[in-house]
Specification:
Layout: H1 2-7, H2 16-44, H3 46-52, E1 63-75, E2 79-90, H4 93-112, E3 118-129, E4 135-146, H5 149-161, E5 165-172, H6 175-204, E6 206-221, E7 228-233, E8 246-260
């Protein structure tokens, strides 16, 4: 029999081996896709799966409650900020810019010599102006900051006398003061969140077991920038600005795990 087969080997129709190869490859691909399908289905439900993950390890008889709270503190501002600017217009662009450059260099030199006040030059702008667009206007500002309000106002008055115009003046919080206030506001928010969780548990006849997924964020407060005046103006005397308390807030949220009084942990 074997001799017969060797003498007359079996011949399959052309393309049979190729067809079988394609069939085998197709089966392998089908099996691979079938095995990966559950994983792909889990990936497609990413956000929904994550949303349910908070209670995935919670006891069957537990109740999950999502709560948030905002803490607030009132803080006295400790930093006075003033904005002044100088503007020059004319037909000669180079001459206009030169006038602004010289005036601001003099202002910076005066500010650097004032104790207790820090100064920085602000944006520089040059634009065409005039009814026929035949003039150039250049301008630049300077910012003054200091915890000694009297020193800031004195320097601002000197710069006004030198030709600069006051563009904004207000009290705000220095970075260290704001950080400390946010920490206090966060502590207040966490205490308020715990109180709300306890109150909700009492109303539902349950008890608080734990807080999960606690998130903390600064809510914000008064902006650290001076309020601009109606227009940049040169004044014979400095305006009066009061250091009103500012509100700093912090926001917290958490998932609260509640269970019945008779349940064990």
């Amino acid at each position: 029999m074997n001799d017969a087969l060797s003498r007359h080997p079996l011949r399959l129709p052309r393309g049979t081996w190729r067809a079988r190869s394609r069939l085998s490859l197709g089966l392998l691909l089908f099996a691979a896709i079938g095995a990966a399908a559950p994983a792909l289905a889990r990936d497609d439900g990413g956000p929904a799966a994550e949303a349910g993950s908070a209670g995935s390890d919670a006891p069957a008889d537990a109740t999950l409650l999502r709560l948030d709270a905002t803490g607030r503190v009132e803080v006295a501002p400790d930093l006075l900020v003033a904005h002044l600017m100088f503007e020059q217009s004319g037909r000669d662009a180079a001459a206009v810019q030169d006038a602004v450059n010289r005036r601001m260099a003099s202002a910076r030199k005066t500010a650097d010599g004032a104790p207790g006040v820090t100064a920085r030059l602000e944006n520089y702008a040059v634009n065409r102006s005039g009814e026929k667009n035949d003039q150039w206007t250049a301008q630049q500002g300077i910012e003054l900051q200091g915890k000694d309000g009297t020193a800031v106002l004195k320097l601002a008055g000197q710069l006004q006398a030198a030709g600069l115009a006051l563009n904004g003046l207000s009290w705000t919080l220095s970075p260290p003061t704001r950080d400390a206030a946010e920490a206090r506001a966060t502590d207040n928010a966490l205490h308020l969140l715990r109180d709300r969780a306890a109150a909700a548990a009492r109303s539902l006849g349950l008890r608080v077991v734990s807080l999960r997924e606690v998130q903390i964020g600064a809510g914000g407060g008064s902006p650290p920038y001076p309020r601009p005046l109606m227009r940049a103006m040169a004044m014979k005397s400095m305006p009066d600005v009061t250091a009103d308390d500012q509100t700093v807030t912090a926001e917290v949220s958490a998932t609260v795990l509640l269970r019945g009084d008779g349940s064990g942990r």
